[in-house]
């Protein structure tokens, strides 16, 4: 069943596998939202080329990312599941959005600061700088009401809202102003080796990849950094490592985090780590199997991608035509 509210979100195809944070913070919610909303989900390949990609790997990872979304439970009949670069309107609206964004405003985006500081701003591309503006275009093209993402995307969503409001004020009502849909409990899954920062595919030692071998997943969770106490307690401020494990276990077993914590009263960290590893492997094993099955039929994946992108394009083209018209760009008559 599709409701009238629309949600849209995207994920980059930059790693061979989604990491646990992608799944718990975003994709898992996408799966439930497709039952209640008109859902649009995409692989943001144009975002991934803001840093250099190997073409062979990018192509393979895009297919793999698409297969992972299907394996996670996105249904290409209920949701519109597509590839960003197959809908040219993203780049076109991206340009328009760049033209109404202030340079200072773009400079304040913290993800750019973080990412560029690793390699130095001289090595960062202009695309990396304007990345959040393309993201705004992604969202506004579909007149999305809500955007299900993890906490790290909040600032990009605020920019999107500002740009939508600015355009509407200058040129007349054109865009829906979207709301961030951030589920607090799982909004920030932490790095297993450094539980003061978020889990990220760019820091693979502290990240669990869903397509990792079960023994690798188990090893990573069992060697998660905790603290020097022994008491299992859900206390994200003082015990971020333990609380992160509790969040992961509670989510995979569909239980309340405080109840899960109570189960480990007097049992120590070893038991918690072992059970968390087991719960993740129980999900990741069948997930990896479904991904392999889907991957074995690339022609079918290509067919689904193209069908999804064609569906997305109908809406995207309408919004772009309206935007150009509002701006005073003269439409061609061919
Ligand atoms: P990306 O590919 O980095 O991540 C995909 C989604 O996973 C979430 N996420 C996490 N959630 C909780 N804990 C974590 N440790 C964690 N790591 C990642 C992210 O918040 C995200 O929701 N800019 C986006 C892609 C994008 C997009 C869009 C999203 C492009 N256009 C339009 C929404 C709408 C990104 O790089 O996500």
Structural description of this entry:
The protein is mainly alpha-helical. Helices cover 55% and strands 7% of the residues. The protein contains 13 helices and 5 strands. The strands form 2 sheets. A 3-stranded parallel beta sheet has the order 1-2-3. The protein has a two-stranded parallel sheet with strand order 4-5. Helix 3 packs across helix 12 (268-295), helix 4 runs parallel beside helix 13 and helix 7 (126-140) packs across helix 8. The mean pLDDT is 96. The structure holds tryptophanyl-5'AMP. Tryptophanyl-5'AMP is lined by residues 8-12, 21-22, 25-26, 44, 47, 135, 138-139, 147, 149-150, 152-153, 156, 187-189, 198-200.
List keywords for this structure.
334 residues, mainly alpha, 13 helices, 55% helix, globular, binds tryptophanyl-5'AMP
Structure summarized in a few sentences:
This protein is mainly alpha-helical. 55% of the residues lie in helices and 7% in strands. The protein has 13 helices and 5 strands.
List the SSEs and their pairings.
Elements: E1 6-11, H1 20-36, E2 38-43, H2 45-48, H3 55-72, E3 80-83, H4 89-99, H5 103-107, H6 110-119, H7 126-140, E4 146-148, H8 154-171, E5 179-181, H9 214-222, H10 240-252, H11 257-263, H12 268-295, H13 298-327
Parallel strand pairs: 1-2, 2-3, 4-5
The structure holds tryptophanyl-5'AMP.
Tryptophanyl-5'AMP binds at residues 8-12, 21-22, 25-26, 44, 47, 135, 138-139, 147, 149-150, 152-153, 156, 187-189, 198-200.
């Amino acid at each position: 069943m599709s409701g009238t509210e629309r949600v849209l979100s995207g994920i980059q195809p930059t790693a061979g596998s989604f990491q646990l944070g992608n799944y718990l913070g975003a994709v898992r919610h996408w799966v439930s939202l497709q039952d209640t909303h008109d859902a649009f989900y995409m692989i943001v390949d144009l975002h991934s080329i803001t840093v250099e990609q190997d073409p062979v790997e990018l192509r393979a990872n895009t297919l793999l990312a698409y297969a992972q979304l299907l394996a996670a439970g996105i249904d290409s009949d209920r949701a519109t599941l597509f590839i960003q670069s197959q809908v040219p309107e993203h780049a076109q609206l991206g340009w328009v959005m760049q033209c109404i964004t202030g340079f200072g405003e773009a400079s304040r985006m913290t993800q750019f600061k973080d990412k560029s500081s690793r390699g130095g701003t001289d090595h960062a591309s202009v695309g990396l700088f304007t990345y959040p503006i393309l993201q705004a275009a992604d969202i506004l093209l579909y007149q999305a009401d809500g955007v299900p993402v993890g906490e790290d995307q909040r600032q990009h969503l605020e920019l999107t809202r500002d740009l939508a409001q600015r355009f509407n004020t200058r040129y007349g009502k054109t865009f829906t102003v979207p709301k961030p849909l951030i589920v607090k409990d799982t909004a920030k899954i932490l790095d297993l080796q450094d539980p003061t920062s978020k889990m990220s595919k760019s820091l693979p030692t502290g990240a669990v990849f869903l397509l990792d071998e079960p023994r690798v997943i188990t090893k990573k969770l069992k060697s998660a950094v905790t603290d020097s106490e022994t008491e299992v307690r859900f206390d994200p401020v003082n015990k971020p490592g333990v609380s992160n494990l509790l969040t992961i276990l509670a989510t995979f077993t569909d239980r309340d985090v405080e109840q899960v914590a109570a189960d480990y009263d007097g049992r120590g960290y070893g038991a918690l780590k072992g059970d968390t590893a087991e719960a993740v492997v129980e999900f990741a094993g069948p997930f990896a199997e479904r991904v392999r099955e889907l991957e074995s039929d690339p022609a079918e994946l290509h067919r689904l991608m193209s069908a999804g992108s064609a569906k997305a394009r109908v809406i995207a083209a309408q919004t772009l035509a309206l935007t150009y018209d509002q701006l005073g760009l003269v439409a061609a008559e061919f």
